[in-house]
């Protein structure tokens, strides 16, 4: 379903990678961190409701309540759309703090993959300030997901440090 739903979508980086590479990477991280089948499936589907016409009800019908519950917990409410990065990431951090371990595992894997993307092959429309806001917001989210997977916690910390250094290096280069 995720592959079909994201067909024709591309990441907004220089390479214009097919978007499905992101859910694939998130699902791989969830699996490597010991995630269960529902968490892995949810990782594949985590952006479908936000980025395609697929609804939570369709996910529930196709995959059941457990996966729909996780995906719903990962899906930003409509009022998040179009808001500044720092505000949206802050809201996401607050929201995920109230969620269960499965949502937190997938969200942490998602943020890990996203900060790697933003740090090393950022969206072409992101300024350096946008990049830093995104990575710092993801760091706040990761703090609220800490403890669900030592592996993800460790990888996030290392990737966060490398991403911030790469962004700051671009900032100095552009100054």
Write structural notes for this entry.
With 175 residues, the protein is mainly alpha-helical. It has a single domain, classed as Hypothetical protein af1432 (Orthogonal Bundle), CATH 1.10.3210. Helices cover 70% and strands 0% of the residues. The chain is built from ten helices and no strands. The chain is globular and about 50 Å long.
Gyration radius, in Å: 15 Å
Low-confidence stretches: none
C-alpha end-to-end distance: 44 Å
CATH fourth-tier homologous superfamily: Hypothetical protein af1432
Please indicate the count of domains.
1
Helix-strand sequence:
HHHHHHHHHH
Strand content: under 5%
CATH classification class: Mainly Alpha
**Helix content class:** over 70%
Mean pLDDT across the residues is 96
Architecture, CATH level 2? Answer: Orthogonal Bundle
Characterize the biggest β-sheet: none
Q: Total strand count, please?
A: 0
Which term fits the overall shape?
A: globular
Q: Supply the number of helical segments.
A: 10
| Category from helices, strands and their pairing | mainly alpha
CATH fold call:
Hypothetical protein af1432
Assembly classification: single chain
Quick recap of the structure?
This protein is an all-alpha fold and 175 residues long.
Secondary-structure topology with pairs:
Blueprint: H1 2-5, H2 21-32, H3 37-45, H4 48-51, H5 56-63, H6 65-74, H7 85-97, H8 101-120, H9 128-145, H10 150-174
């Amino acid at each position: 379903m995720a592959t079909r739903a994201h067909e024709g979508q591309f990441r907004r980086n220089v390479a214009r990678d097919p978007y499905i590479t992101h859910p694939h990477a998130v699902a791989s991280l969830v699996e490597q961190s010991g995630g269960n089948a529902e968490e892995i499936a949810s990782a594949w589907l985590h952006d479908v409701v936000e980025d395609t016409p697929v609804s939570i009800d369709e996910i529930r019908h196709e995959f059941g309540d457990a996966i729909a519950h996780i995906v719903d917990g990962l899906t930003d409410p409509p009022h998040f759309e179009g808001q500044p990065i720092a505000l949206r990431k802050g809201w996401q951090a607050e929201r995920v703090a109230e969620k269960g371990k499965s949502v937190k595992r997938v969200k942490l894997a998602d943020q890990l993959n996203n900060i790697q993307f933003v740090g090393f092959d950022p969206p072409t429309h992101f300024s350096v300030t946008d990049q830093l806001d995104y990575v710092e917001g993801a760091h706040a989210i990761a703090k609220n997901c800490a403890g669900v997977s030592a592996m993800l916690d460790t990888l996030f910390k290392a990737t966060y440090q490398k991403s911030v250094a790469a962004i700051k290096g671009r900032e100095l280069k552009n100054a």
